[in-house]
Amino acid sequence: MPAALVTGASRGIGRAVAEQFAADGYDVAVNYRSSDSAAREVVDTIERETDQSALAVQADVADPDAVEACVDDAVDAFGSLDHVVNNAGINQHRYTPELSPEDFQRLLNINVVGTFAVTKAALPHLEDSSVSEGPSVINLSSRLAYSGADYEPHYATSKVGIIGLTKSHALEFGPTIRVNAIAPGFIETDMTDATTSEEAKERKRQDVIPVGRLGKPEDIGQAAAYLRDASFVTGETLNVNGGQRMQ
């Protein structure tokens, strides 16, 4: 069976990607940092609702040693690693006057360096993949990479960095491995629920999203499945935002 590793997969977008891949016939390693019970719930759901195997693998993506062990555990369990989805990340609503250099660096370490570390650890296994569509890496960026964000400049900066890393790795790893990114718009997750009022959500629905609704994690799962299988697409960033920002 082909296999995938999805980081930050215990909830939200990562969970939706993991469940989409399993529904499509992939064994899935469900990475998490601290939510052991939530990750095991994802594993149980996959194994109950599909014919695929799943494995919860703990690692803080900012810790290179933990990342190496996480990738090794996935390969040991499934015998191969064919696709990686770098979803793990954090955000933090903080304006520059109250944002410390330490907080800025910590977010970059998780969002950008973590993406790099997971890809590097997975690289020799992806090179050995024999899946028909070819192995791939899919990185999660954000619409804020284009617009910026006055309330979280370090988060927006990290998402710009992910696009640059995506293009660089597409050049470096081709033709063997494809590397693409997804830039979600406003997706309803636990993270956005914690920072966005219902009034603000309704304003977005009515005023700035042409399709008239907020995104769902499943929308990103479908986009990831497309990039996984799109054998003539690499180095691209797929905007999934309901038309909120048109390139």
UniProtKB/TrEMBL annotation:
One example GO MF annotation: oxidoreductase activity
Pfam families: adh_short_C2
Keyword terms, alphabetized: Oxidoreductase
Annotated Gene3D superfamilies: NAD(P)-binding Rossmann-like Domain
Annotated PROSITE patterns: ADH_SHORT (PS00061)
Superkingdom of the organism of origin: Archaea
InterPro entries: NAD(P)-bd_dom_sf (IPR036291), Sc_DH/Rdtase_CS (IPR020904), SDR_fam (IPR002347)
Span of the signal peptide: none
NCBIfam families in alphabetical order: PRK07231.1
Similarity field: Belongs to the short-chain dehydrogenases/reductases (SDR) family.
Name listed for the protein in its UniProt record: 3-oxoacyl-[acyl-carrier protein] reductase
Source species: Natronorubrum texcoconense
Lineage: Archaea, Methanobacteriati, Methanobacteriota, Stenosarchaea group, Halobacteria
